[in-house]
């Protein structure tokens, strides 16, 4: 993909559109299908629960609507492939523009660095990304630029059902970042957000970390974002993919399911 | 002696499934005193409050003294089978299909003579025990039983028309995560059920009893999420035509104060899981059950709801459970009238606090799920409609009948 330096922004968009049309730039869907049996975050049952996706038919070319098919749907804000806004966590509760409806539109499109941890996650479901592993990645692919997404590729999205949730009697066992790397990514690298293939941006056991849920703690405390339950990260290059992640504009919303797209050059 | 009923054969795809017909259903208002007793498995007939003589059939004035004070009271059920007739020909469509049919006259020890359906093991001139049964039309009839158990007596075909015996039947239990569902699976397997399908929601969430449930011979775990229209419809598409008895254990218990913010959400979840869940289940399964009400000797027989007795009177400590099961109770009456078209019974089993995690903070007495499960099996075998299981359930119903306002004032204290 070449973008001539002297091109006008309008010309740049025209070139991009042409390149998408002839598949020079590929559009990759990073989204799972919203379906009733997709695992959701689990809290102790006496606490409030995020509603799973549900669909009830209004009509299907029948007596309730002879020529049309449509459904009522319901779900929690944090269901399926979804976006976390800063207000989701207590650390981000007082920040400006911290809800999905006030989210700056420009933040919905940003490049991504993809850190491949699929081998480590296959060996250890509790695998944690550390700062030294991130530095190793930088040694190979260059410094993580500010306002980039960091996407943690674990191939976890290829699992389904019970293996995907991976719950045992001491909680979920899924990979994620440790506390140190999260503080470092946010404070030292200025990332726009973290994206994972698992149910949360945090590891399954992150409630026992210090601080608990460090991805949520540091990201949202600094006004950054989370993307989770992503798919197809294995189709992305380590650097250079452009992520389009526009959550639903829900008044005072803390997050929402969304379609996440990646533009990838040839 | 009753012939042991052979297990059901596989369905002949060339034969039309017999349509369910019903016996005559017209009763006087007074006769519903018998319906009330039969529904609860009690034996009650009228006894004059003025002259103390028993009267049958139900009427508005005492045949001895013409008093109009004729309350239904528990009565001795013993008698002698004075005359026995085996009917070979009938003009009634329902009975025509079930000939020959034994009826007789029983002289009750307490006075009246009654015409009764007669079990095959009763002998003319010998003592019998009368019971009030709900026939396929849901109305009370007198049934003459042997005084003591006889071999295979539950297989008598006339008796089977009154009962919903789980033996050799295929049963769906809606929730295997629920300890009551697990206990029911064990009880129904013990009762000789052919297959017990046990629904499990959220298959991706492990639960402790899963392994033991899976190892139970005759149990088949099936995916069923009652809050998901599609999941319920998919399961009905798969096994709907094989469900002879459906046991709906839907509950959603979250203690909470009415003014807590979370309670509205809990209530919505409870209504979705219980009331709307039951509606989804009914929509998907009940039409096929109605159509299979006379599908051989092992056709669709009953729908069971496990309900909290606090459906009858709200227990503030379990407010949302009480409300949701009160709604389910009302729904059950609606559903019962629909199921009645196929001669399929609806049994509500009411229980007080159970010895399960969500009732942890309530004081004893608490009912063991196994006791509730056995009471459901017993209720199915006897073909009754309302089962009150345990001391608390019986206490609440008695106090409700005596003085609902007293119960309302006292229940939260």
Write structural notes for this entry.
The complex is a heterodimer of chains A (266) and B (413). Chain A is an alpha/beta fold and 266 residues long. Chain A has a single domain (18-46, 77-264), classed as 3-Layer(bba) Sandwich (Glucose Oxidase, domain 1). Chain A is built from six helices and 15 strands. Chain A has helices at residues 9-21, 118-123, 131-141, 161-165, 179-187, 214-221, and strands at 26-29, 54-62, 65-74, 82-84, 109-116, 128-129, 149-153, 167-168, 171-172, 176-177, 193-196, 225-228, 239-245, 255-257, 260-264. A nine-stranded mixed beta sheet of chain A has the order 1-15-13-5-7-11-12-4-14, covered by helices on one side. In chain A, strands 2-3 form a two-stranded antiparallel sheet. In chain A, strands 6-10 form a two-stranded parallel ribbon. In chain A, α5 (179-187) packs parallel to α6 (214-221). The radius of gyration of chain A is 19 Å and the shape is globular. The model of chain A has no long low-confidence stretch (mean pLDDT 96). With 413 residues, chain B is of the alpha/beta class. Chain B has two domains: 32-162, no CATH class; 170-411, Rossmann fold (3-Layer(aba) Sandwich), CATH 3.40.50. In chain B, 32% of the residues lie in helices and 20% in strands. A seven-stranded parallel beta sheet of chain B has the order 11-10-9-12-13-14-15, with helices on both faces. In chain B, β10, α5 (210-215) and β11 (219-223) form a beta-alpha-beta unit. In chain B, α7 (261-291) packs parallel to α8 (319-339). The longest helix of chain B is centred in the last third of the chain and has 31 residues, at 261-291. Chain B is globular. Chain B starts with 31 loop residues before the first helix and ends with a helix. The model of chain B has no long low-confidence stretch (mean pLDDT 96). The A-B interface holds A 36-37, 39, 42, 45-46, 48-49, 52, 54-57, 161-162, 164-165, 167-168 and B 202-206, 223, 225, 227-231, 254, 262, 265, 269.
